[in-house]
């Protein structure tokens, strides 16, 4: 839309007729003060401004418009029949005008100039938009590069530690065998195997994250009793954490349709985290609740706890709390994988915690009358 500013209604009427005949939308103002109010309130493509007006003259209006950030680049064409000297024309450009036309003006020339300035302004706006997008993209790429470097450093550190341990245990086993201490050698070999298992777990998690990103994470669906999943998960956990005691309450004698191995992976992650972040407490609670065709599984520890601010980010990829980064090893992939698995099964997940007072991690799944959401991940029915 074009704003015509002139204190004489007959001039406005003539200009409006010309612009309307060329399908150009028009708004009008009879004074500089009214023009400023309209410029602040509305968006215009161009202003045609009379120079000699009572109150604020055209130059003052142009300077005011140019001084407003919203309208600083708005094209202004001065139109005058009186002030036609070089000094006035120069002042027009200096006050923020883009052109200075002297009446009588050829209508075709006027419309041509209007269309040219509008097109230039649109191109300038588009260029500014592209520049902003490029700046944003550059910042995003910088951020991604920083995160990638941090991740590579973290993975290198996490992989190097068990590899170093494996090498040390193998050397100790060799020395024990050399001294005919077979039993001692087997102890070192078992410890080396534990470190290899940790490496395998890390590599599996990394591959799962990559599969999620590419939409290739497999889910093998079947009907199973949730108690069977609990028993299997607890058996695996007790073997890997013989010094921990899991106190279980509630029953889960319901049929679930889902990927038993993936859901077992979620529960094992919850239990392992509970053990990891509560080193001075031997007991972990596992509570099962059934209500409204849903099963809720809660794992509670009495460990270090998590601040309220950090709880909102727990299930994000590679996120780790400040305290966990300072005191515990890990790559921040476990809970992210849990969230993806539970979401696939049309479930919900979350955590409740107080710093220094332990944490409760939970997930909720439908067990009857609901369909699974089969989106991007691959799904195999049994």
Automatic annotation (TrEMBL):
Residues forming the Histidine kinase domain are 154-369
Location of the Response regulatory domain? 1-118
The protein, known as:
histidine kinase
Q: Which organism is it from?
A: Parapedobacter deserti
Keyword Coiled coil assigned to the entry: answer is yes
Q: Write the record's keywords in alphabetical order, separated by commas.
A: Coiled coil, Kinase, Phosphoprotein, Transferase
Segments forming a coiled coil: 117-147
Residues with the modification 4-aspartylphosphate, per the entry, are 50
**EC identifiers of the protein:** 2.7.13.3
Q: Tell me the superkingdom of the source.
A: Bacteria
Broad enzyme group: transferase
Transferase among the record's keywords?
Answer: yes
Which InterPro entries does this entry report, sorted A to Z? Answer: CheY-like_superfamily, HATPase_C_sf, HATPase_dom, His_kinase_dom, HisK_dim/P_dom, Sig_transdc_His_kin-like_C, Sig_transdc_resp-reg_receiver
- For this protein, what reaction is catalysed? ATP + protein L-histidine = ADP + protein N-phospho-L-histidine
């Amino acid at each position: 839309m074009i704003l015509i500013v002139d204190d004489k209604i007959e001039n406005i009427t003539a200009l409006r007729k010309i612009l309307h005949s060329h399908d150009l939308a028009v708004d009008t103002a009879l004074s500089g003060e009214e023009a400023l109010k309209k410029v602040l309130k509305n968006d215009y493509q161009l202003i045609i401004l009379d120079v000699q007006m009572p109150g604020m003259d055209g130059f003052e209006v142009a300077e005011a418009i140019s001084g407003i950030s919203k309208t600083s680049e708005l094209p202004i064409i001065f139109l005058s029949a009186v002030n036609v000297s070089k000094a006035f024309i120069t002042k027009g450009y200096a006050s923020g005008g883009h052109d200075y036309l002297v009446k009588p003006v050829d209508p075709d020339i006027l419309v041509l100039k209007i269309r040219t300035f509008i097109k230039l302004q649109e191109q300038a706006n588009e260029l500014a938009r592209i520049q902003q997008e490029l700046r944003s993209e550059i910042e995003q790429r910088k951020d991604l590069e920083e995160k990638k470097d941090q991740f590579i450093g973290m993975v290198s550190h996490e992989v190097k530690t068990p590899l170093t341990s494996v090498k040390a245990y193998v050397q100790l086993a060799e020395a024990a065998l050399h001294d005919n201490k077979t039993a001692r050698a087997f102890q070192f070999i078992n410890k080396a195997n534990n470190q290899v298992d940790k490496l395998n777990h890390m590599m599996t998690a990394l591959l799962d994250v990559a599969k999620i990103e590419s939409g290739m994470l497999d889910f093998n669906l079947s009907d199973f009793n949730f108690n069977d999943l609990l028993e299997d998960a607890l058996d695996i956990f007790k073997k890997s954490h013989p010094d921990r005691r899991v106190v279980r309450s509630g029953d889960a004698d319901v049929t679930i349709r889902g990927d038993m191995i993936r859901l077992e992976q979620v529960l094992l992650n919850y239990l392992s985290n509970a053990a990891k972040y509560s080193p001075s407490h031997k007991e972990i609670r596992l509570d099962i609740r059934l209500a409204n065709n849903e099963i809720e599984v809660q794992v509670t520890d009495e460990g270090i706890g998590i601040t309220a601010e950090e709880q909102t980010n727990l299930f994000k990829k590679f996120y780790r709390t400040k305290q966990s980064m300072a005191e515990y090893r890990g790559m921040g992939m476990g809970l992210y994988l849990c969230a993806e698995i539970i979401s696939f099964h049309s479930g919900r997940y979350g955590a409740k915690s107080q710093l220094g007072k332990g944490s409760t991690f939970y997930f909720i799944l439908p067990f009857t009358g609901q369909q699974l959401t089969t989106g991007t991940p691959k799904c195999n029915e049994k």
